[in-house]
Specification:
403 residues, alpha/beta, seven-stranded mixed sheet, six-stranded parallel sheet, 10 helices, 16 strands, globular
């Protein structure tokens, strides 16, 4: 029976010395004794789960694809991703489109993959068949998504709910957004924090579980805190960079990277539990789309492979611990996606997926070393704290459906 051992295994009951054994890909014992692989004092985390990944295949595979995205995930300690319904063509708003994505992924994936559905104007009749097919929930935009095939919804049109599954909201109020100019100052001014907090309050009474995507501001943290039952996430780039670090369109994303005050409010939101998870919002594009100015460049940051060391760099400075990492990067994303019966924690009966992490090592970021399709990253040249030593996945990669 295969097994691993470490003095620091992050189990569902806390961090402790343990020997973990599994059979046919499922954890069957968490105990003591010798193991096939003694990892010393390296930290053994549950295989990470990233519930916010834009794979873009089919349709925009030149931006990213299942083969490259899942290799990047595996290299970064992530053993499960949930693919967003855009920027692929067609978007995952119909059963036919879901089947096209699943077909494209077949034979290419290095980690387990599940899928979000999407809702756009007129796609409501397709929701039941997507639910029956096992999508994890549904994403909507309240403003321009950046691609014409995934237009925005109005809050009034969200009132019917989505069969009890999570509704993932890109929460920026369209009415409060301006036209961006070419400079970062102008882009930042065009997407103010109040656009986030206003949209969050507007969707607070929509029926069903509401999850707010990629929060970037203290205003948004407060708005989520004001509404019990709402969940929310943030991303490593918002926890790492401030507006002062932005040097060009590689840093462009929506909502934008804001000033230091907002970054620290996000860390406090994680501390209080208002923000439950840290996901990549891996949104790559070809290099030519990330050039030019802030009015015209594509908005998206590719960081799937860097999520663990980027988060740990800031978390360790603020005295968070390994249990926090496991919760933000594995347990809560798995719970949101309805995959926590088998994913997200080291427990009996769950999948034998593990990220082996040296918290005192270093990751020197070179885009040319990353496994994503294009070697461009705003983290270029940075030295991050911590290093993914290995990713252990006992079962072959497969496509998942919500429990």
């Amino acid at each position: 029976m295969p097994s691993i051992r470490s003095t620091r295994v992050v189990t569902a009951d806390g961090v402790r010395p343990a020997t973990v054994r599994w059979d046919q890909g499922t954890i069957v014992e968490i105990g003591t004794g010798n193991a096939d692989h003694d990892l010393g004092d390296l930290v053994v985390l549950p295989g990470l789960v990233d519930s916010h990944v834009h794979v873009n295949e089919p349709g925009r595979t030149e931006w990213e694809g299942f083969a490259t995205a899942t290799r990047a995930a595996l290299a970064g300690g992530t053993t499960t991703i949930v693919d967003m319904p855009l920027n692929s063509i067609p978007p995952t708003t119909t059963l036919e489109a879901l089947r096209a994505k699943q077909s494209a992924a077949g034979g290419q994936i290095a980690v387990d993959v599940a899928f979000w559905g999407g809702i756009v104007p007129g796609s409501g009749p397709h929701v039941p068949e997507l639910v029956a097919a096992g999508v994890c929930g549904f994403k909507v935009f309240l403003t321009d998504s950046g691609v014409p095939e995934f237009p925005a919804m109005t809050v009034a049109d969200l009132g019917a709910g989505v069969s009890g599954l999570p509704l993932l909201v890109h929460a920026e109020s369209h009415a409060m957004l301006g036209e961006p100019g070419p400079s970062y100052a102008e882009y930042l001014e065009s997407r103010p924090p109040v656009a986030e907090s206003t949209a969050i309050r507007e969707v607070a009474n929509v029926e069903g579980p509401i999850h707010i995507l990629h929060i970037s501001s203290g205003d948004a943290v407060q708005a989520v805190s004001d509404h019990a039952g709402m969940t929310a996430e943030t991303c490593p780039h918002y926890l790492t960079f401030t507006a002062d670090d932005v040097t060009g369109p590689l840093f462009k994303c929506a909502p934008p990277i804001r000033d230091r005050e907002h970054r620290e409010a996000l860390w406090e939101g994680l501390r209080s539990g208002t923000l439950g998870m840290v996901v990549s919002d891996h949104s790559p594009a070809s290099p030519e789309l990330k050039t030019g100015d802030f009015a015209t460049a594509w908005g998206g940051i590719a960081s799937l492979e860097l999520r663990l060391p980027a988060t740990w760099t800031g978390a360790s400075e603020r005295r968070f611990d390994f249990a926090d990492l496991a919760r933000w990067l594995a347990a809560e994303p798995a719970r949101l996606a309805g995959l926590d019966d088998t994913k997200g924690s080291i427990e009996m009966g769950k999948d034998a997926d593990f990220a082996v992490f040296d918290p005192d090592g270093v990751t020197v970021v070179r885009g040319s070393d990353l496994h994503q399709r294009h070697p461009i990253t705003p983290y270029e040249g940075m030295t991050l704290r911590g290093r993914v030593v290995d990713t252990l996945k006992a079962s072959p990669a497969r496509m998942l459906t919500r429990r």
